[in-house]
Amino acid sequence: MKRVITPAVITAFVLVALLISGNASAFIIDFKADKSEVVVGEKVNFNTEIDVEANDSAMKFFEFNINGPENRYCKIGLNGCLIKKCKGVEVIKVNETDFEFGYGYGYGYGIKKTINYKIVLDTLSYKEGDYEIEFVIKSEDADFSKKVPLTIT
After folding, report:
1. How far is CA 60 from CA 52, 63, 75, 123, 136, in A?
2. How many helical (H) and strand (E) elements, i.e. helices and strands, does the chain have?
3. Distance (Å, rounded) from C-alpha 153 to C-alpha 124?
4. Which of the chain's termini has less CB crowding within 10 Å, N or C?
């Protein structure tokens, strides 16, 4: 009897652990600013690289959030067009590439996509102060984000 219970308990434990853990992160974000401190009127370039580990149909849109003395929320379509515009923000879709992993012939690990955006922030219309700039991927399952600091003097 003891031999039957032990494997059943271990199996149940593993199944519960898998169900609780959920899906693995499908996106890896690299979000960097070319400057961390600027004078009012200067432009800051934010380079965004998104590695999509799974089917990118889960991505709905992106957000570029400016938090500080002034708060702005920008909504960006997957094609790089601004859905909800922010003053002084321009988005350029730089590149999109697909890589296939595995052995070919339908076997292997799948396709990985890399998407690059350049977001330009013109600080002419913003107050001086410390800001936190956030890039967010809105997907069907969860949100994925990265933040960088910016000081405008």
Report:
1. 13, 10, 11, 28, 11
2. 1, 10
3. 11
4. N
Tens of pLDDT along 103-125? 555 555 556 788 899 999 999 98
Cα–Cα dist 139/130, whole Å: 29
Contact between residue 69 and residue 127 where contact means Cβ atoms under 8 Å apart: yes
Structure tokens at 133: 């700039």
User: Which residue is listed with tokens 């499908």?
Assistant: 26
More confident residue, 56 or 131: 131
Q: In whole angstroms, what is the distance from residue 122 CA to residue 77 CA?
A: 20
At residue 22, what is the residue type? Answer: G
Q: What type of residue sits at position 85?
A: K
Annotate 30-77 with three-state secondary structure: EEEECCCEECCCCEEEEEEEEEECCCHHHEEEEEEEEECCCCEEEEEC
